[in-house]
Amino acid sequence: MPVKEVAAKIASMxxxxxxxIAIAAAKAMEQEILDGASYDELVRAGxxxxxxxxxxxxxxxxxxxxxxxxDKHKSDDPSVARSLIIADVSDFIAGLESSLEKIAEIGSxxxxxxxxxxxxxxxxxxxxxxxxxxxxxxxxxVYACETRPRFQGHITYNDLxxxxxxxxxxxxxxxxYTMVHKSVTKAFVGAxxxxxxxxxxxxxxxxxxxxxxxxxxxxLIVCTETIKFSPYSVSGExxxxxxxxxxxxxxxxxxxxxxxxxxxxxxxxxxxVTEVGIIPPEAAYQVLKEKFGWSLE
Length: 297
Known about the structure:
This protein is an alpha/beta fold and 297 residues long. It has helices at 3-11, 18-34, 39-50, 58-72, 78-108, 124-135, 152-162, 175-181, 206-216, 284-292, and strands at 116-119, 141-145, 166-170, 186-189, 193-194, 200-203, 219-223, 261-264, 271-274, 277-279. It folds into two domains: 3-102, Up-down Bundle (Four Helix Bundle (Hemerythrin (Met), subunit A)), CATH 1.20.120; 109-292, Rossmann fold. The longest helix is centred in the N-terminal third of the chain and has 31 residues, at 78-108.
């Protein structure tokens, strides 16, 4: 798929979910390389993709990794360099795609028989964990917040219901009532970005779920691939919180504030499930250091 088409689909949220965005961007960059793009042309293509979704750090992470691969082979024999680049990029994409499978297996072990689980938005990572747990024969209930104003919770509901999972859709404002009166035992949420200090950027409403969970004594479990860990936050650069069109909320002339994401502080997070294992939020820096080579020193 051409870069401009992928960028448009990311911006319109036709392609959604941080991992899906990273994979789509990497494949678009791979196609540019196959089409003979130079390094400078690849940089421009990457900039087009980055502008489509400023909040999802998986997007620049994927693009920058592809650029790193291209740059790494620039001194190789030109007759073989491009094939080496394509091979490395293909391996990178395969690693992204397999990370979901690994997290599904690791995370499914956290789901226990009889659990009552609350989730918000549409995290493919969370859905994969819950479906894997159900496939293992574990029986539990899920309450999915509808997630206004884009109603991504409807996608989660349909995904889980089609897999046979016992799922119920609730309005966002019923989250705390549901936690208390339906005896929720765990809250599973995804992530768009994980900061070096362990704070998490995710869909608007996630921080409210975290605060409710803390007050109700419910575990908050963040499920995410390490491609979403932000190396930029090592130097203090934070994600720009996207504000979306007010017409998503109400198509009338009115003053409307429509942030798409919020930040959940690490103090409200019990653990983060990744493809490299389960870590406390404070270990985010160690993951960045070991996986991406970033350091505070």
